Amino acid sequence: MLTFLTPAFLAGLAALAVPLLVHLIRRERQDAVEFPSLMFMSRIPQPTVKRRTIRNWWLFALRSLAVILLVGAFARPFLERPPEAFTLSDHAGEVVIMVDRSYTMGYGDRWQRALAAARAAVDALGSNDRATLVFFDTGAEVAVSATTDRARLRAALDAAAPSAAGTRLAPALRIAEGVLAGSDLTRLEAVLISDFPRTGWTGDAGVTFPPGALLKTVPVLDDDVSNLVVAGVELERTRVSGRERVTVHAQLARHGAGDGEVTARLEVDGRVVQSVPVSVPAGGTARATFPPLTLAEAEVSAAVRAGDDALPADNVFHFVLSPDPGLRVLVVEPSAGDGTLYARRALELAQEPPVQVTVRRGGMPSAAELARADVVLLHDMVPGDDEAGRRLLEWVGNGGGVILAAGDRTLTATWGDVSRRMAGGVPASVTDRVDVGGARLGYIDYSHPVFEPFRAPRAGAFSAPRFYRYRAMPAADARTPAADTAAPAATVLARFDDGSAALVERRIGAGRVLAWGSTLDTHWSSLPLEPVYLPLLHQLVTHAASLAAPRAYHTAGQIVDVGRVAQADLLVTAPSGQRTTAAPGGTLLRLAEQGVYDVREARAGGPTVALHAVNVDVAESGLVAMDAAEVVASVTRPRSPGAQRASAITLPGNEQERRQSIWWYLLLTAFVLLTVEAVLANRRSRRPA
Amino acid sequence: MRLRNSVQPVPGTGFIDPAVLARIGNLELLARTVVDGFINGLHRAPWLGMSLDFAEHRAYYPGDDIRRIDWRVFARTERYYVKEFEADTNANFMVLLDVSRSMRYAGTGIAKLEYAKYLAASLSWFSREQRDRVGMLSFDTDIVDYVPASAKHLDVVLHTLDRAQAERPGALYGSLSKATELLRRRGIVVLISDLYEEPERVQQAAGLLRHRGHDVIVFHVLDRSEIELDGEVGGVALDDATSLEDLESGERMPVLTPKVRERYRELVQQHIAALRKLLTEVRVDYALLDTTQPLDHALFTYLAARERLTRGSARAGRR
User: Fold this and answer.
1) What is the pTM of this model?
2) N or C terminus: fewer CB in 10 A for chain A?
3) Which residues of chain B have a CB within 8 Å of the CB of A37?
């Protein structure tokens, strides 16, 4: 029975109307021929369209037949035969060829050797063998699904190139497992072509081939490996005369043998601006420090290059230089006293990010002051229910950060609706622990971003500060009389040793409020005198401001949200020059190429919104190979005795169509018909009427 | 009936293809080339030297010039006879040239206007050789140029012909009415036109001249494609897909079907037949010329008419 692989093309039969119209409708040239006089013509009645009939029936038939054949060719017809007519033989095999295209395959001639091995595997296929081609790096994709067409496999191999990503064997093996498990053929086989980096296989991938399936490994390795790597950069920022200067430190490593002396070059916007000699010992690391740079503009692409070896991908490290925008903190304190001295001094010492401190005494900040602040620190003050209080609440909802520090003046009676909404309730009355030498912090949530830097041992001694007086802050489990049950519960980040909440966080709209149960001066606690005071305060304002420092570089394969901060459509230009568009409000982009991605507004001459520098995963730069037999042992298992597999299967429609190739004959016939038509029509047009 | 069958060049004469003549830039040289070639081909023709040839004797009447008495006859017969000669005509020769825009058409050969210019120049040169007074008048909807007939105006005529352009639509009857007023002295009037007028109007216009006593010769100049509506025009085949645009009115006719073309040919032949018949009725010579035809045929037609005129004048003088 005649069947079509792409029957949608049969809609093209509507094109039959074209020759029909050509033969029915009177042809008329655009340019009229000038004639001396139409005196006689005007006496001749012109024929009307109604009287017209098809002229030149044989030309019409030729043209119509050509159209039908063309449409039929595009519809890819084939004769659907019974299963026995098109089946693979008993010895047909299902083969999955997996080719590693991670960046380490670019070392020397590894890629050429890998392609040669893959082509050899294709050539070794039997006439009825079905093969699937898979390329993989950190992920895996099926380049050619199961087919007996070797030309397609070879074409896919010819078009392939190494990527910038690392190596993970598991995704490719998982695809092979699925293909082999779903196959009805007798012989199951997989070919894994890779340099088998140690980091690419964890052994617990959970991949198991069907019983009897073979895994052939083709390690593409080199006996003598020497590779210099620019492993990363560290940016040290300083401020000189109000301008930010950045010192770039580059980390270099040498794997294997080699000469010790190299030149590290710092490139900014593609131009070499500084060079320093570095001595990198064989099998060791070194640090290259470049003279400080003054940052004049935001988002400048930079790179450090060193060495010229067989793996150039890791001889360069891309990053983005951008001035640190800093943090603006408005400290609000009562008119009397100077309780924020420690806090102000601690914030002014901050470098990353630099903090600009402004002090306001007595009363809530004005709208103009709020507009110039990222964080408001309310020290021993509570916002009222007046306009200023509501303005502050609205400001927090729009993304502002507030740190509330309780003290003598934050009396329970002074807490109104606004302050309750901000803190999630009313703090308890003052707890005096002077008699016991002060309370300590009994619980700290180290998984929270505020305390995460203190997670490591000896990173911060929170057991040292003594809290002589404090107020238990309203928390999720605190049953306070005026608790706002409609608001989401606060998160307790730290508790005093009596279990009462010391630090709670509450999100309001896009902003957040951190409520601290004690003062930030030495009046109620010894915290300002402890070493952890300064980093803790930095963490508090940074977290309250929801400040996430832009990353200077990424690793290939990572995903970034390019449209997060944009207001208009964006145009993303990859290092290879390929362009894609991104809508504002959140568009995820996989950074697949090594180099710098340029994200700018899509309109003509639109400004650059962000640059994303992408580097290869240097963890594989050591080129340390594992034993491929380990992979084989992990994923294969012997066939159980007596198990037999079906051997005869019906070929899918596309395979049958490919083998019959009727479309080719239709196309050839249509071409011949059109040639004949052209010759005949030309002769007819020359023949006098 | 096709033109190529109806008009045959005279054997033995020096034919010059109009397309070849078109390469001669100088109209005077062109006319001389045509006329000299024509005369050389006719060196035995009986019309040559007619103005000085002896005609007959007649009896002497008192008052006759005694110098014309043939004394040799008197010696033989002792009677007075006077010798009479063919008249020395010094006739007026006027070319009326149609320069309407339709004359600009160049279908299969040279443009009709160019052909008409060659023809007018050749006839003028030939007439001047015969010591006629030559002049010309060009017209479209009105009279464009007028050169009165004179024995010294050949150069002016040739110059005026050379710069004639076909730029405006034409109106034959009105223009010839005005020309009739200008041409008061009897003579030979040659009308060269494509005659896109109703035959009756053409007859009326020619009749005006004829009634003034002029001997009128009409040369109907057409391109072959105008008659047969076939072949190619400007590289464009006149086939089913061709639409035509009137050179004078700008009007367009959509497509030429085979039936339309066949009907067109019939109408053209009817038009030519009607012209020939109606002009003959008013004793006007009519000759159809196509632009691929050598000019000799036109010269023969002219010579025949001139001979008739001179003999007619002589007879009128004797009466």
Assistant:
1) 0.48
2) N
3) 102, 194, 196, 246-248
